[in-house]
């Protein structure tokens, strides 16, 4: 690239990376070359490459996972197109859609996972052991790295080998993290429940048991993230243990008092 100024270099680098994705040369789900390689290909410095990668990550086309590299998440800017579309739906509708995606991904993962997928899932499950809640959707551990916050769940979508599911999931996650929904969602699965649930999901995926993968994921998503309203209603209203129900009631009271103070 024959480029002179810094901003031209930045623009050209961004265009170069985006073209790789939109043309499919870098497929969704694929890991992109490492920074030094990209720097060599584009003839710009590593910091310019890093900046371009960040800006594509911010619109949902790329995602950087610590220790694993940067992956193509979507051939289109999900956080703009898909998020604008999803913004027309209620939180209940979006959460129900997220449930459908998680369950389908778990089943597909049990059918299509590779040894590498299992190794990555095992590592993620081990890393998330210390969390007090399932960090799905980044609703907890907000100070932690955002890519870390949904690593286990995200990796299931990698293992499912379905680009459309993975792309839609990115959009859903962005939408559920939107400021207007933030106060209405609660992570109510404890760290111990998360570990037990994730272990069961992982075991089912690993053994290729697609029926148990579905059951394990259904059980998990029905109590990991729930909608809490000021009227003590919780969606989805599915079977939970008394302890889980108590935590939901506590979260509900918390929301009610937050709303009355606002
Ligand atoms: Zn989880």
From TrEMBL:
UniProt keywords, alphabetically: DNA-binding, Transcription, Transcription regulation
Domain HTH gntR-type intervals: 7-75
Domain of life: Bacteria
Record has DNA-binding as a keyword: yes
InterPro entries, sorted: GntR_C (IPR011711), TF_FadR/GntR_C (IPR008920), Tscrpt_reg_HTH_GntR (IPR000524), WH-like_DNA-bd_sf (IPR036388), WH_DNA-bd_sf (IPR036390)
SUPFAM superfamilies recorded: GntR ligand-binding domain-like, Winged helix' DNA-binding domain
PANTHER family, A to Z: REGULATORY PROTEIN GNTR HTH, TRANSCRIPTIONAL REGULATOR, GNTR FAMILY
Protein name: FadR family transcriptional regulator
Taxonomic lineage from the root: Bacteria, Bacillati, Actinomycetota, Actinomycetes, Micrococcales
